[in-house]
């Protein structure tokens, strides 16, 4: 079997004949909110705003959902990727607990919305296991577990024997977070876009914005087909677009890599234990393992700084081989199995590792959702809810913790 490099499994398996086609933007349009970006965050935001009765226009430069949304691992995390102790040391226990609980509520809200809208996104709920392989890992995880208990945050400790039962891994223990899961991010993005359109949102794809012109009370967005005039512009992007280049100093752009096997035989599946939980190790950067509904193994990691296009293909082959070797060290039974897919995904990480959601003082009539990092797809729904509250001037206590103010205060 020949490995397919640079091809996302989620997008490749979706029949091209069933991919929805949205029109290109043509003519002048006045709207309350214009959303730049038709990925998972953009479509989630369009749905949430349209459901609240706000007139929304989405402008996507390429095809809906076929960028980072179709490349991400599809992890629905109910906790942030930043350890609780790190958040507590930086912000204090009360703030850390609020951030942790906000992530959990947003993830559960997202899962409930997917089910309510009957989106066939192959949502599977189980748990996430942060595992340790040696004494140093165990010490770190036990201190993290104690901090979670002291803050009355959900989580439980798995002994080495229980870890072996659940995952087949021989380790020193793990922190189990209930309710985490995974899904097909491309199908979910399409489902949210369709739900937004049903609620009178307007979506344009292959409609690049070539000019952003702030006016006194509105913002004009120029495309090749005309002008969109909006009271508020929402930038729902992985990384700040060129029009907002000054904001890039707050973020670093990385490449993460994904390898996916063909469906593994039963003798290999037995090595993975009885659980279908997400497994996250303590490597730097961490590896993440999940299994798909058709018994494939997805392994994610090997992050590095974003590489130039000229070396992308070479690096993709190298990182795919590296990840398969590291996977075989965890599960020797998988040795010799070739990956069917190997692809990369761009990840934007803020200076403190947390997403930035909200206004910026230098851009009136704008709201931003940037730097989702490794926090999982639930960040899209978290951003959508926070943005709606900001737009309606109904911000809740704690929403400011996701804004740019915390980064500006670090300078």
Order of helices and strands: EHEHEHEHHEHEHEHEEEEEHEEEHEEEHH
Query: First CA to last CA: what distance?
Result: 51 Å
Number of helices: 12
User: Which term fits the overall shape?
Assistant: globular
Q: How confident is the prediction overall: mean pLDDT?
A: 93
- Strand proportion, as a percent range, falls in 25-35%
Specify the structural class: alpha/beta
Could you tell me the radius of gyration in angstroms?
A: 21 Å
Query: Percentage of helical residues?
Result: 25-40%
How many strand elements? 18
Describe the largest sheet. Answer: 10 strands, mixed
> Regarding quaternary structure, how should these chains be classified?
single chain
Question: Could you name the ranges where pLDDT drops below 50 across 5 or more consecutive residues?
Answer: none
Descriptive tags:
28% strand; alpha/beta; 411 residues; 18 strands
Description:
- There is one protein chain.
- By secondary structure, the protein is of the alpha/beta class.
- Helices cover 32% and strands 28% of the residues.
- The protein has helices at residues 9-12, 40-51, 68-71, 84-91, 93-116, 135-150, 160-167, 185-198, 266-269, 312-330, 378-391, 405-408, and strands at residues 4-5, 29-36, 56-59, 75-76, 124-132, 156-158, 173-182, 202-204, 209-214, 219-223, 226-236, 251-261, 278-280, 288-291, 297-305, 339-350, 356-360, 363-370.
- Strands 1, 4, 5, 6, 7, 12, 13, 14, 15 and 16 form a ten-stranded mixed β-sheet that branches.
- The protein is globular and about 65 Å long.
- The N and C termini lie far apart (51 Å).
- The mean pLDDT is 93.
């Amino acid at each position: 079997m020949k490995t397919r490099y640079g091809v996302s499994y989620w997008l490749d398996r979706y029949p091209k004949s069933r991919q929805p086609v949205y029109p290109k933007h043509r003519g002048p349009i006045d709207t309350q909110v214009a959303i730049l970006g038709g990925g998972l965050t953009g479509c989630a935001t369009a749905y949430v705003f349209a459901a609240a009765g706000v007139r929304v226009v989405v402008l996507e430069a390429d095809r809906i959902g076929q960028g980072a949304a179709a490349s991400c691992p599809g992890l629905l995390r109910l906790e942030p990727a930043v350890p609780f102790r790190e958040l507590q040391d930086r912000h204090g226990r009360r703030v850390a607990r609020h951030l942790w609980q906000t992530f959990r509520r947003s993830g559960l809200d997202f899962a409930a919305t997917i089910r309510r809208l009957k989106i066939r996104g192959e949502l599977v709920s189980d748990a996430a296991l942060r595992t340790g392989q040696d004494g140093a890992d165990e010490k770190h995880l036990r201190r993290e577990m104690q901090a979670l208990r002291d803050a009355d945050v959900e989580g439980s400790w798995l002994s080495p024997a229980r870890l072996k039962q659940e995952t087949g891994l021989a380790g020193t223990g793990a922190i189990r977070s209930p309710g985490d899961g995974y899904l097909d991010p491309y199908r979910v993005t399409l489902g949210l876009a369709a739900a937004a359109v049903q609620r009178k949102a307007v979506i344009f794809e292959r409609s690049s914005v070539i000019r952003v012109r702030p006016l006194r009370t509105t913002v004009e967005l120029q495309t090749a087909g005309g002008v969109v005039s909006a009271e508020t512009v929402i930038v729902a992007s992985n990384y700040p677009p060129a029009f907002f280049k000054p904001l890039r100093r707050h973020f670093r752009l990385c490449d993460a890599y994904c390898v996916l096997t063909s469906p593994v035989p039963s003798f290999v599946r037995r090595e993975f234990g009885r659980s279908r939980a997400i497994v996250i190790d303590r490597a730097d950067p961490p590896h993440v393992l999940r299994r798909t509904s058709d018994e494939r193994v997805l392994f994610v990691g090997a992050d590095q700084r974003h590489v130039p296009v000229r070396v992308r293909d070479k690096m993709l082959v190298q990182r795919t081989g590296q990840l398969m070797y590291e996977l075989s060290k965890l599960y020797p039974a998988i040795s010799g199995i070739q990956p069917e897919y190997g692809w990369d995904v761009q990840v934007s990480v803020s200076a403190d590792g947390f997403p930035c959601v909200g206004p910026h003082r230098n851009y009136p009539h704008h709201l931003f959702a940037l730097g989702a990092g490794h926090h999982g797809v639930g960040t899209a729904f978290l951003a959508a809810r926070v943005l709606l509250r900001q737009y309606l001037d109904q911000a809740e206590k704690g929403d400011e913790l996701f804004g740019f103010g915390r980064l500006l205060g670090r300078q």
